[in-house]
Design a protein that fits this description.
mainly alpha, MetI-like fold, 11 helices, 75% helix
């Protein structure tokens, strides 16, 4: 008696997320191109091809890479300072009651406050320069990052906490060896949220006062081209903001995620 052959079902490429996302991007690009051609008004809405041409010219001239580099350099300063402050507050809240009360009070007061609303104070305190930008970036990163980190620390199992206490871990050593590894999914989520808030805040701030020592960032590039009625370059600047955000979110954070929480079995594939 022979058994019937078993069909081996191989997964279709269409079942993978990357081909579907590429197809959706192509459809969006096609709709953009068609709408631009139907509207036939470059001043209001350039076509996708015109936008890509403006993007190419800005990249070849070196203006756009320089402006993007300026923005990312300032963003990195504010992001690192905000992350360090958030981790310090969360660690203090995880180890002391006073720290927990302090974190609850500060986040209740400052988290609802939009970072862009602090621009007038930043101008008065730090002047027209990178110091003002870093100040608003720290504010935009610190509070969501602190809340996510504190939530992750609180979700660590009591058993794991007792293990750390039993081996004599206290203070910063206890936080670094027990709390941070166990709460890393929440910490990474806080990093993603903080990055998104910081990137939006930076572009908005640069649109207002992005010039420092004769140079500015992507936001100031968009503002300059708007004043010159170069709408294609404005769209090229906006497209650059989107592309940088996609690269950081889809490449950098995904790389960190794959080599930490997924490798450790803390998240499904």
């Amino acid at each position: 008696m022979t058994s019937a052959p078993v069909d081996i079902v191989t997964p279709s490429r269409w079942n993978q997320p990357l081909p579907r996302k590429i197809a959706l991007l192509l459809l969006i690009g096609l709709a953009w191109e068609i709408y631009g051609r139907v509207l036939d008004n470059d001043l209001l809405f350039p076509t996708l091809l015109q936008t890509l041409r403006s993007l190419y010219e800005a990249v070849i001239s070196g203006v756009l890479p320089q402006r993007a580099g300026n923005s990312l350099a300032v963003l990195l300063q504010g992001f690192l300072l905000g992350t360090a402050g958030a981790m310090l507050l969360a660690a203090l809240a995880a180890t002391t009651r006073i720290g927990a009360d302090l974190l609850d009070m500060l986040t209740a007061v400052f988290n609802p406050l939009p970072a862009i609303a602090l621009l007038p104070l930043a101008l008065m305190w730090f002047g027209l320069g990178n110091g003002s930008l870093v100040f608003v970036l720290v504010h935009s990163v610190m509070w969501p990052m602190a809340l996510n980190t504190h939530s992750g620390f609180r979700s660590v199992s009591p058993t794991l906490r007792m293990v750390g206490r039993n081996v004599g871990l206290r203070g910063l050593r206890y936080t670094a060896a027990i709390l941070i590894p166990a709460a890393f999914p929440s910490i990474l989520a806080g990093l993603k949220i903080g990055w998104a808030f910081a990137w939006r805040t930076l572009i908005a701030a640069e649109l207002v006062f992005g010039v420092s020592s004769g140079s500015g960032g992507l936001g100031w590039f968009i503002y300059e081209r708007k004043n010159q009625l170069d709408t294609g370059a404005v769209f090229a600047g906006l497209l650059s903001v989107i592309l940088i955000g996609l690269v950081v979110e889809g490449v950098l954070f995904r790389w960190v995620e794959n080599r930490t929480i997924r490798r450790w079995g803390m998240q499904s594939q």
